[in-house]
Amino acid sequence: MMGIVGLCALMLPLLTGCWDRLELEQRAMILGIAVDEATPADLRHAGTTHKLSRPPRGGGATPVRLTAQIAVPGRIPLGPGDAGGGGSGGGGGGGGAAGQRPVWVLSASGYTMEDAVSNLQNQVAEPLFWGHLRILIMSEAVARRGPSPISDWLRRNAEIRRTLWLTVSRGEAGALMQATPPLERVPALYLWSTLARAQQLGRLPLGHANIFWRALSTTGQEPILPYLELRQQQNIFIRGLAYFRGNQMIGTLNPWEVGVFMTVKGLNPAGASAYVQVPGTGQFVMIRSTLRKSHLEVFWAQTRPGIRVRCHAEVAALEKTGGQINLSSVAQTRAVEASAARDLTREIQALIGRTQRERCDIFGFGELVRAQMYDYWQHNVRTKADWDRIYAEMPVEVEVTVNLRRTGTLNR
């Protein structure tokens, strides 16, 4: 008898069922959001979701306008048959009818991020769900003012994934949420895949939120984010990287400088291309890096630390501009390698010098000094401002080697 009672007691938890289930159609899944500065007109039409006798001014509170892409249930492509730019849905009802957009774009404004999100919720019947948020784009104006309020709101939301891509847009960020690229029916997922593919092709470093927050919280490194631009209302162009000093964006790197930055960091896969002049011919060879290696060494330069940067790049020849170039010749191959090494050395020195003048250590040299010269760090570096001052005057030595491994098989 006691055995039967015990068995029934063990079965009770199995009889509860999914009492707290929530169907996909009963939540509004946010795929991407854009953050712009709100105008007074935006705030007048926003309404309020709270009692507020005096709007927050100062103290980092900046009115924002959110533009969000919300997935429409039943219209999200589920397979290859639904991936086209507007075709009818296939089996299972995953694609929706032709001409129906798979996302709903809404905009809301507020005095803070949570205020804007509350106003956004007033426009949607179902509760907002942030677990599928893939990309957040902030305008350059917001980034230059400082994204701390955005980061604070993201880190307090338990649904936000740390693999969320954070980006900066040139101009209005909301316009990128309105873009309709023809290669993907879901614009936010197209933005996400564009960044992911660029990283896989060696054009960008990872721009996940956790990487940005980690760099923001360290004393010896400044954060970076991908820098985007919308062209012709639907083309997403990766302009390079936006870099920050402390909490504020202060400048950008163009696509070539991104490759230089990734060479110093030794980030792979490699994918940057460049023209190299062949000495004595006046002609050029287009090369593309296939592998990067970097060794950063801290040394003592009289009374202060210095950094020695040793970089090695393996490259492939893509094309040449004239018949005078013979890459089957060992002498000309070595000449191309030496010319490429000189050019890359100058570019690395120029980029490091520029960041030193701006007192912005995007390479993380400070973290190397902290790890390898801990006593010096403890006595001389208390804040980021201390390291910025030391970094601006720190001697940096650069050594670069290039190996041309693939010359092609057509007439070399």
3D structure, described in words:
The chain has about 400 residues and is of the alpha/beta class. It has helices at about 1-10, 40-45, 115-120, 140-145, 150-155, 175-180, 185-200, 210-215, 255-265, 330-355, 365-370, 375-380, 385-395, and strands at about 30-35, 65-70, 105-110, 130, 135-140, 165-170, 225-230, 235-245, 250-255, 275, 285-300, 305-320, 395-405. Strands 1, 2, 3, 4, 5, 6, 7, 8 and 9 form a 9-stranded mixed sheet that branches. Strands 10-11-12-13 form a 4-stranded mixed sheet, with helices on both faces. Helix 9 crosses helix 10 (about 330-355), helix 10 packs across helix 13 (about 385-395) and helix 11 crosses helix 12. The longest helix has 28 residues, at about 330-355. It is found in: Membrane. Pfam families: Spore_GerAC, Spore_GerAC_N. It is a lipid-anchor. This is Germination protein, Ger(X)C family.
Distance between the termini: 89 Å
Number of domains: 2
> Structural class, judged by helices and strands?
alpha/beta
- Estimate the mean pLDDT confidence: 86
Main beta sheet:
9 strands, mixed
Entry keywords:
13 helices, alpha/beta, nine-stranded mixed sheet, four-stranded mixed sheet, GMP Synthetase, Chain A, domain 3, single chain, 412 residues
